[in-house]
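Researcher: We're reviewing a set of sequences before deciding which ones to prioritize for further study. For each one, I'd like a predicted 3D structure that I can look through quickly. This is DUF2993 domain-containing protein. If possible, include the structure in token form so it fits the rest of the review sheet.
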Amino acid sequence: MEHEQTYGRRPRRRGRKVLIGFVVLLIVLAGLIAIADRVAANVAERTIADEVRQQVAQQGAQSSPPEVEVGGFPFLTQVLDGRYERISIRLRDVQGSVQGGVVALPSLDVDARNVRASLDTLRTGQGDVVAETVNGTGTISYQSLTALLDREGLTLGERDGQLAVTAPVDILGQRLTVTGTADIVVGEQGQVALQFDDLDAEGLPNLPLARTLVNNFARSISVDVPLPELPFQLTVREVRPQPQGLTVTADARDVPINSAG
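Model: Here's the predicted structure for DUF2993 domain-containing protein, in token form for your review sheet.
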């Protein structure tokens, strides 16, 4: 009786071993597919990084090597479809020469969505890789803005969400410290202007001439910020003061992100 019961359980054990082996095989195959998919994505990321590097150089700007990440999985399915969910690009230490000096962006993050690139374009390198929408976020360092204003002792920073200024000024024979905030104006074409309208100084003489001199100083440091040309046809939409600098938000639509034509 015991021998019969033992014999009857053996087929179930063999069946479990076959099932386990099948599951292990599926896991191995899935891993191989994932590896192949990631390898293909890495190749695409390097290609896009090269294109971005060329575009930045063509605009007379400089940056560290672009960091590119192709989002969405599986990648190979996106290749066959010719449409990619997201391509993220990070540029560090961006510098562009402009009239009056150099404006530095320690970082510029670009997020391209719904990118169209046919398989033939990827294979031949001919044609455009076009993003339906591109959003960029960068930071302008306060140091580069201070150098642009070219006023000895002037410092810029963020205070309560506003752009704050502190500067020594000679007024009627006295050395006073002027403080205040600026309005940041973004034009329709993405121009950025700093307007210092409300400056004051502790110990300022209660005289009309003293107030006039402070107002004149405010006008002298109210300037247009000559931003370098941003890549990917990005147009500035918003500028907000942050502790690390002015955060610039920009966007564009239907943008070629490669240099091919």
